[in-house]
Amino acid sequence: MVIATSVAGGPHPGFAALHRRNGYKSWIDSLKGQLLIAGATLPDPNFARTVVLVCEHSDEGALGLVLNRPGDLVVGESAPELADLIGEDAVIDSGGPVQTDALLVLAEFEEPGHAGIQVVDNVGLVGDGSEIEDLIEETRRARVFAGYAGWGPGQLDAELEREDWFVAPAGTDDIFNPDADELWARVLARKGAHFALVARMPIDPSVN
């Protein structure tokens, strides 16, 4: 059974490209495995107060998953083939505005080598063509996302220079945190006093 699929149930033609391993300029330059925390003034409504896990980052661009945007669909109705792995009532999260009919499964593996793409520690993306029965044995927990966040060459770097995003290390508890409403403020506050103040700002500054 192929895990890389669409919400409609068929294999997504562009999904194989998501699992292509790009050459990195250096590990220091790569933000793979880091969290992007949206700045309070980030103008794009798709990413307002989001926390994004960077899954790939190279000079060719970046790919990430929004961790705190629950979607309206549940696995049992829209992706029943994943029910034994994630649960029938699990929500399909909104991973980002790109290819929203593609499903990506992010899991904590028993061994990092089982991941199709290792992201950080034992957490990685499920590989194209993975079998559910194998994944049940190989994973501790998993989430499924519809769509992803994507940046072209140099685009993310430019947004970081504008301070549209702040960077923080990703912990497993952040990635599988069930409290989506509190994740942005909690991760931002960890960065120190100034960021804790930003985390307490209202969504509409005019009410402050």
Structure description:
The structure is a single chain. The protein has 208 residues and is α+β, with helices and mostly antiparallel strands. It has a single domain, classed as VC0467-like (3-Layer(aba) Sandwich), CATH 3.40.1740.10. 23% of the residues lie in helices and 32% in strands. β8 (117-120) and β9 (123-125) form a beta hairpin.
Question: Would you spell out the secondary-structure blueprint of this structure?
Answer:
Blueprint: E1 5-6, H1 15-18, E2 34-38, E3 51-58, E4 61-66, E5 70-74, H2 75-78, H3 83-86, E6 91-94, E7 98-109, E8 117-120, E9 123-125, H4 132-138, E10 139-151, H5 155-161, E11 165-169, H6 172-175, H7 180-189, H8 193-199
Parallel strand pairs: 6-10
Antiparallel strand pairs: 1-7, 2-3, 2-11, 3-4, 4-10, 5-6, 7-9, 7-10, 8-9
Helix pairs in contact: 7-8
Indicate how many domains the architecture comprises: 1
For the residues shown, what is the average pLDDT? 84
CATH arch. level architecture: 3-Layer(aba) Sandwich
Largest sheet: 11 strands, mixed
What are the defining features of this structure?
11 strands; 11-stranded mixed beta sheet; 208 residues; alpha+beta; VC0467-like; globular
Short description:
The protein is built from 8 helices and 11 strands.
